[in-house]
């Protein structure tokens, strides 16, 4: 049986397990008056899903199933939720420095702006 929230005419709030059939009204446990169901709170199960950080998102065209509209729509929703969360909790943002080109001849270059340059081969002792 699902759990519903009720409010009686006296203003007592209570939760009550109720069958779908008689969920509309229940007796208040405090004063016994008929109480109306109020809209349920949205259950977050204790914790909201924070979504993926930026660097866990697909980074390539192939990673989005070649732009599958359903998948990219889902990503967009996930990402806008994540951005709102990061506005409130900047510590979730992670490394915000831009990522340099890192393929081909840039392979050995620093990945992010500000990373130390790699030691050139043969010069370390
Ligand atoms: Zn009451």
What does this structure look like?
This protein is α+β, with helices and mostly antiparallel strands and 125 residues long. Among the domains are: 3-38, no CATH class; 48-93, no CATH class. Helix content is 16%, strand content 14%. It has 1 helix and 4 strands. The chain has one helix spanning 69-88; strands spanning 3-7, 13-17, 25-27, 34-38. A 4-stranded antiparallel beta sheet has the order 2-1-4-3, with no helix packed on it. A hairpin with a 6-residue loop joins β3 (25-27) and β4 (34-38). The radius of gyration is 27 Å and the shape is elongated. The protein starts with a strand and ends in a 37-residue tail after the last helix. 3% of the residues are buried. The mean pLDDT is 81. The structure holds zinc ion. Residues 8, 10, 12, 28, 30-31, 33 line the site of zinc ion.
Which SSEs are present, and which pair or pack?
Elements: E1 3-7, E2 13-17, E3 25-27, E4 34-38, H1 69-88
Antiparallel strand pairs: 1-2, 1-4, 3-4
Bound molecules: zinc ion.
In total, the number of strands is 4
Q: Between the first and last Cα atoms, what is the distance in angstroms?
A: 72 Å
Question: Could you tell me the strand content as a percent range?
Answer: 5-15%
Bound chemical compounds: zinc ion
Report the helical percentage. Answer: 10-25%
H and E order? EEEEH
The gyration radius over C-alpha positions equals 27 Å
Write a brief caption for the model.
The protein has one helix and four strands; from the N terminus they run ββββα.
């Amino acid at each position: 049986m699902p759990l519903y929230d009720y409010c009686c005419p006296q203003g007592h709030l209570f939760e009550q397990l109720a069958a779908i059939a008689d969920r509309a009204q229940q007796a208040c446990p405090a004063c016994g008056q008929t109480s109306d169901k109020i809209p349920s709170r949205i259950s977050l199960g204790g914790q909201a899903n924070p979504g993926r950080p930026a660097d866990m998102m697909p980074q390539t065209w192939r990673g989005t199933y070649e732009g599958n509209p359903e998948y990219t729509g889902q990503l967009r929703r996930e990402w806008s939720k994540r951005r709102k969360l990061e506005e409130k909790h900047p510590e979730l943002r992670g490394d915000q420095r831009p990522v340099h080109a890192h393929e081909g001849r840039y392979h050995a270059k620093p990945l992010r702006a500000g990373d130390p340059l790699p030691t050139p081969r043969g010069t370390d002792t």
